[in-house]
Amino acid sequence: MSAVTAGRSSRGVVDLVFRARELSIVAALAVLVAVTAGVNGNFLSGQGMKDIFLNASILVLLAVGQSVVVITRNIDLSAGSVVGLVAFTTGDFLAADHGRGVVFAVVLGVAIGALCGLVNGLLVSFGRVPALVVTLGTLYVIQGLDHLIAHGRQINAVDLPPALLALGNGTVLGVPYLPVIAVVVMLAVGYYLRSYASGRDFYAIGSSPEAAGLAGIPVRRRVMGAYLFSGALAGLAGVLWLSRFGTVVADAANGWELQVVSAVVVGGVAITGGVGTVYGAALGALLLTTITSALVVLKVNPFWQQAITGALLLLAISVDRLLALRVARVLRRRNARHGS
């Protein structure tokens, strides 16, 4: 067997393992929904399912952007603070001038988010500062800027254009706009990462930045692009947050950065980079949102919601490690057989 064929076979093993991981999340979702619906039949009501998908949509967008960063063996802890900054700043502009509509809000929000992502990307890729340090720092800087702009004020739904509020609560053919937007973005990004050479570069960088550089991949530019994209999606999520809830204060989405990372890791994107899909990350976001909704329906103490999320994160990281070791052993055996 040729080296190329062996490489494709090895990649097939990895894809099979992590496809099984995504199927296990679907199974867990099905069990969770069935058990909760058995205890409280209202959980599967039309409004109940609509609320779950609406609440998951923003987290899915953030998880898709975070996935691209994590695949490159980096992390973005500033996503939640970007959502808060964009939601308040965009709402402030719209409240001051009702003539500005949805398109203006989306463009402004994405631009602000992209600028935050650009700062992160420049510091990580060209400044070579550890991603954890950079994004933790920008998290606090952005939060401080948000509080400075807000200055104790809040944005109310009555101050916003009706078209923007319709985006967050309206439907098309009975399906809310927000889940449709999240699914379209997820499918587009997933297709790009798998079908384009530049998309596959992110996986190569996550697997081995040094080897990717030797292969001629522009590592710094790709990493900066990952942060730019993550910031832009966080900006879009901020606009959707504003349209969904209407009332926004300075600490909107506070603490969501940990939920985003949890969704990505639970969804099978390896924290060590190079492995995972945006589809798995989206499923992880949906699982975490469904768990939260189920615990509320079952009237479980809010403390356990956070505890379960933390336990899932630890379990996912442990499973990733065990799977990585298992896959490595399988690949070594295959390579040994092909080499003999």
From TrEMBL:
Any one GO molecular-function label of the UniProt entry: transmembrane transporter activity
Keyword annotations: Cell inner membrane, Cell membrane, Membrane, Transmembrane, Transmembrane helix, Transport
Listed Pfam families: BPD_transp_2 (PF02653)
Any single Gene Ontology cellular-component annotation: plasma membrane
UniProt subcellular location: Cell membrane
Keyword 4Fe-4S: no
Topology in the lipid bilayer: Multi-pass membrane protein
Superkingdom of this protein's organism: Bacteria
Record-annotated membrane-spanning stretches: 23-45, 52-71, 102-126, 174-193, 224-243, 255-271, 278-297, 303-324
Assembly: The complex is composed of two ATP-binding proteins (LsrA), two transmembrane proteins (LsrC and LsrD) and a solute-binding protein (LsrB).
Function: Part of the ABC transporter complex LsrABCD involved in autoinducer 2 (AI-2) import. Probably responsible for the translocation of the substrate across the membrane.
Protein name in UniProt: Autoinducer 2 import system permease protein LsrC
Organism annotation: Streptosporangium canum
